[in-house]
Amino acid sequence: MTEKLAPPLFNSLAEQFKPTNDIIQTSLQLKGHCAFLFYVKSVVDGDKLQQTIIRPFFEMASEEGFASYIQSLPNQTDVPDYKKLLMMLSAGFVLVAIDNRTFLLNIRLVKNNEIQETVMEPTIHGPQKGLSEDVETTINLIRQRYHNSSLKIEKVKKNDVSNRAIVLLYDDDRVDPDVLAKIRAKLEEINTPLLQSAEDLQHFLNQSKLTLFPTTMVTERPDRIIYNLVGGKVVIAIDGSPNVILAPVVFFDFMSSMEDNYHVSLVTGFTIMLRYLGLFTCIFLPSFYVAMTSYNPDILRIELALTVAGSRIGVPYPSFVEVFFMLFFMELLTEASMRLPKAVSATATTVGGLILGTAATEAALTSTIMIIIISAVAISTFVIPINEMSFAMRITRFILLIYTSLFGMVGLLVGFIGIIMFLANKDSLGIPYLRISWKGKSDELRMNNK
Amino acid sequence: MAGIKKMRKGCLLIALLTALLLQSGCAFKDIDKRVFVVGIGIDPSDKVRNGFKVTLKMAKPVGNVKQATAPVYAYISHDSESVAEAIRTMETQVDKVLDLGHNRIIIMHRDLLSKDLDTFMDFFTRRGDVQYIAYVAVAESTAEEAITFEPVTETPASIALYNYFDDTGTESPYVITTFLFEFRREVLGKGINTVMPIIGIDKENNTFKVDKSIILKLGEEPLELNSVETKYLNSLINKASGFSYKVEENDMTLVLNINEVKMKYKIILDEVSPRIDMNIKKVGVIGESDKRLSIKHLQKYDEIVADDVKKKVMELLTTLQKNNVDPFGFGLRYRATRLSRKDIMDEWDRIYPEIEFNVKMDIQLKGTGAVE
């Protein structure tokens, strides 16, 4: 009895993978039965391989029996063309050859499928777990919260080098077909060698090169995803990223926290009001200081005007330099405490915030009122629930500050109107960015429900 | 090529914009380079004929307001032909920009009131940084003295005179508040005379004393009201509450605390003689008494008080009428409610000296002020 030879496909595949060490090309032989396996060891689940393929082979009596067993496995797929086959093998598929037939089995070993804690949008109430870095797990998490046949899952393959899966999720009954078509076209257009994460993909979905305000939202909260799916939005998930993209979004989406749904109405109303006050504080306060100390001190109360004037005694630079100086240090502090390891970041904040602040006033570099303003600004920036928007507001603040330094109170107003105009002119996949929808929660969820 | 050109243009634009940042411009003036004027006094000048002596009270910023013990104000004055000139000259006397934006009081000398008021007050209505909500007042002696006087209760960064006239500080029916906008409107308008408070100084206690008022007549000698008249007038015009009133009737003395005043009047001309019907309602409690009072007799007290108060109001109204001044604005009401005619004010000027007053006083005492 002559030994059967591996099919020529296997050899050419092995040739292709060389000199990688973790490819396995092996044969199973028992009493003249023979099967060939080809896989990449590091991405294949060894136990599963053993249980679903190797052991049954030795228990089966015939090659035909084994072949039909393999064919009936749920994770069996057809063998695609050569190029795609290579990609799938490197993703953890196992190629099995019996007789002249070849089968492709999905026995992927996915190590990054644990469910992440919510870090970007933590809430007190509501789900505490976010999504997973593995897209299959993410889809599972979404499906398990949304048992509905109208939830469609659509794979989009981009030919970037990493060959990651990009998945579109939407509720077919509720989604706006125009928006969906636009997103498909946008994804089609993307032509980049490497896509790494949801945030990465988001940049390519944004219309223009120079953007300040995000037109799609990156989220990690499954409750937000479901809420938006029901609202008729499209979810884009990418393998390897614990976040997904929601599109289209309006400005006010960035100002809402999922926790708004979990509190009693007055508490929610209060927190929403707090959030908007925080938003206005963080973009206006520095400019306001400049406008009031250098252009129109008349609008302050006399007591405050005298206190501000008193606290500025000996400060060498004009007010806007003072504000820029302090904002610069505040931004450095924020950035530093974000990048530093958790254990050190507390020290950085203390050293920076407390010591620098006090020392700066002692040294008459800034006024005491300035320190209060800067701290209020720093705190209120973080009241904005979605991180991307709070980053955008950090920059908006500077734009307003420049306008105010040049033109005073009028400049502040003109700058603000300019920003409003800019936002009103912006759209997210055809939806006006500043659209205010006077809708109740139940109306919002019934959106486009024909 | 086009790309480079575009980039150059962009760079130039950014450079120009950055350069703009360095030009702080003329409007840009830091708060520590301004000196806030917190009071203006105008007196007739001794040095310049027909001129004015303008005194400014300026607040000096202090590093720490809480640790400053004494009030920190500086005063300068200058004689000149006009107010504007004097202030312009004073700008050369201080190193900082004179900022009138926080000035809320303008004190005038009494002698200036009979002169052409509107010409020197014109400056304040024209200058952009003077607020129309500034108070105008008359000094009992000289404006300079009233402006430079620092009462014992004045604290740093809080100007005592402001507290008199805005309702955040003391609230007394003796204090009449007149704003610059009112002053301007009433001086130039017809049918109403402006009432202004008189700021006196109590040397003994080292405090201000604001309890009298003066009624302006353009181009004529003004009429001064004593403190009781001021109180009555203020309670009727401005519905000033906290009005305490003493009634003496059959060896009984009552002091009332009135906390609600309502006044309505009607000019009636179609009857035999012209008449003004005035309905006054005052609600309050008895604050002090030298006799035991019973709540059952409350109505009796009401009547006693009403008779007495009515007498006082009538006295006030006739005094005003005799002097031909009209702080209530009866004339204004007359003008506003008749068809406009050419000589409508002359008509009123004929009617007013002969008009009769019919005052109906309704006093409602809510209690005797004590628990039985």
Helices and strands of chain B, in N-to-C order?
HEEEHEEHEHHHEEEHEEEHHHE
Quickly give the structural class of chain A. alpha+beta
* Shape summary of chain B: globular
Determine the fraction of residues in helical runs of chain A and give it as a percent range.
Answer: 40-55%
How many structurally independent domains of chain B?
Answer: 2
Largest sheet of chain A: 5 strands, antiparallel
The low-confidence runs of chain B, each spanning 5 or more residues with pLDDT under 50, are none
Contiguous low-pLDDT stretches of chain A (5 residues minimum) are none
Described by the principal axes of the CA atoms, the overall outline of chain A is elongated
| Secondary-structure element pattern of chain A, one letter each | HEEHHEHEEEEHEEHHEHEEHHHHHHEEH
**Count, helices of chain A:** 15
- The pLDDT mean of chain A sits at 85
Number of separate strands of chain B:
13
The amount of beta strand of chain A, in percent, is 5-15%
What does this structure look like?
The complex is a heterodimer of chains A (450) and B (372). With 450 residues, chain A is an alpha+beta fold. Chain A folds into 3 domains: 8-106, no CATH class; 115-248, no CATH class; 260-428, no CATH class. In chain A, 50% of the residues lie in helices and 15% in strands. Chain A contains 15 helices and 14 strands. Chain A has helices at 8-17, 46-59, 63-72, 82-91, 135-145, 177-189, 198-205, 222-230, 265-295, 302-311, 319-339, 342-362, 368-381, 387-425, 441-445, and strands spanning 23-30, 33-40, 76-77, 93-98, 101-106, 115-117, 129-132, 151-157, 165-171, 217-219, 234-238, 244-247, 427-428, 431-432. Chain A has a 5-stranded antiparallel beta sheet. Chain A has a 5-stranded antiparallel beta sheet with strand order 8-9-11-12-10, sandwiched between helices. In chain A, a hairpin with a 7-residue loop joins strand 8 (151-157) and strand 9 (165-171). In chain A, helix 9 packs antiparallel against helix 13. Chain A is elongated. The model of chain A has no long low-confidence stretch (mean pLDDT 85). Chain B has 372 residues and is an alpha/beta fold. Chain B folds into 2 domains: 29-225, no CATH class; 226-372, 2-Layer Sandwich (GMP Synthetase, Chain A, domain 3), CATH 3.30.300. In chain B, 30% of the residues lie in helices and 30% in strands. Chain B contains 10 helices and 13 strands. Chain B has helices at 2-22, 83-91, 117-126, 143-148, 160-165, 180-188, 227-237, 298-322, 330-337, 344-351; strands spanning 34-44, 52-59, 73-80, 97-99, 105-108, 135-139, 195-202, 207-215, 223-225, 243-249, 252-268, 275-289, 356-367. In chain B, strands 1, 2, 3, 4, 5, 6, 7, 8 and 9 form a 9-stranded mixed beta sheet that branches. Chain B has a 4-stranded mixed beta sheet with strand order 10-11-12-13, with helices on both faces. Chain B is globular. The N and C termini of chain B lie far apart (100 Å). The interface between A and B is medium-sized, with 27 and 30 residues.
